[in-house]
Amino acid sequence: MYNNEYVKDSSTSLLILSSFLFMSNMISTHYMGYFVYCVLFLCLTISSITYHYNSNTITKTIDRIFVISAILYAGYIFYQKANKHNVNKVIFVIMSFFTIVLFYCYGYYANEYCFDYDIRIGNIYHSFIHIISSIGFHTIMFM
Fold it and tell me: What is the DSSP letter of 5?
């Protein structure tokens, strides 16, 4: 199985750049008054940049903690805001979540997408996950 944890190449900078997208989530959560969520996105941004710049077991674990925290808090807010008046946004958020699960979880077991044998392809898919999740988080905030 492919393990990209300690492999570096020029596409790693794409991951670092796409990690900066979470700063936009930090700004929108602050604007909307979700200050705990804002701090989570600040920590997620820092941990994601750190992990993609210096991949090791410790930075990976810290990044996963903040990823899971942001997802759980987003789920909580999503549950509060979802209703029949914003069905399109609800469907979009659910589709974005399952797309991320496909690219990351299924990709892990199938050695595809984020875990492709070609590190460049894996990094492109991982960057795409950053983009999709950032848009999904924004959609939840503005439901």
Answer: T
Q: Which of 25, 19, 57, 21 is nearest to 38 (CA)?
A: 25
pLDDT digits (tens, 9 = 90+) for 46-78: 999 999 999 999 999 999 999 999 999 999 999
Backbone torsions φ then ψ of 33, nearest 5 degrees: 90, 15
The pTM score is: 0.90
Q: Quote the DSSP letter at residue 106.
A: I
CA angle 113, 41, 7 (to 5 degrees): 35
Distance CA 121, CA 143 (A): 33
CA–CA gap between residue 21 and residue 126 (Å, rounded): 13
How far, in Å, CA of 81 to CA of 140, rounded? 8
* C-alpha 92: how far from chain center: 16
| 8 Å CB contact between 73 and 36 | yes
How far apart (Å, rounded) are the C-alpha atoms in residues 92 and 89?
A: 5
Q: How far apart are CA 143 and CA 141, in angstroms?
A: 6
